[in-house]
Structure formats: C-alpha cells, structure tokens
C-alpha cells in the first residue's frame, strides 16, 4: 500500500506509526474512534483527556491534521447553532486506511462500547456530544 499522508509522505511508514502512537496522539485517535459519530469537538477531546492541557490537545490534533491522519470538519454557516460547537475532528480516509493496515484500529468496537459506559460526563460534554455534526464528513 502506498498511502500518502500529507507530510507523512516524507516519512517512512514506521516513522508515521511511531508518530501516531505517541501517547497523547494515540489517545486522541482513540477518542475519535470511540465517539458515537467519530467526530468529537475540541471540547470533547479536552474533557476526555483531563491530564493534558487544552493547549497540548490542540497542538497534537494540529500535528495529526498536518500529517493527514485527522481532518477538521466544520458545519456550514447556516447549520451552526449558538452555544454549540461547529468544528469537529475525524480520521481522514487515508489515515483510517493507514492505521487499519497496521492493525491499529482493531479495538474500535471495544472503544465505542467503553465510551457508552462513561457515566460522569459534564452537562456541557453531553450537550456537545449531541450537537449537530456535518453530514458529509
């Protein structure tokens, strides 16, 4: 397989795997996979990683976007609702294929089941989890 992942195209596949499996980045990838729509907002990612600063979550998501593993998707202006997020983060098709080919998505269903058991979600987290998401993500 010759999936090219943005700047990852300049990296060897093993380097991309090492990059993606760095602890914080891999946790963020897992957060995306476990989300009911696989499109969490930044707030949801921050809530799911309380031991990591908001700036660190943002920095690592940006690195995953720059590498082509993650994409940022936004609601169209006419779909945005005040008080709700409008930017969301999901795996790119190339990122999903790359991770799947290296057996890094094997726990996807388990992650989704674990997510369903989280019972101490804040009111804001539940609100954001139920926010409208782009249809064509």
TrEMBL record:
The record ties this protein, via InterPro entries, to: FUR, WH-like_DNA-bd_sf, WH_DNA-bd_sf
Question: Pfam families of this UniProt entry?
Answer: FUR (PF01475)
The protein's name in its UniProt record: Transcriptional repressor
Instruction: Give the species this sequence originates from.
Output: Halorubrum tibetense
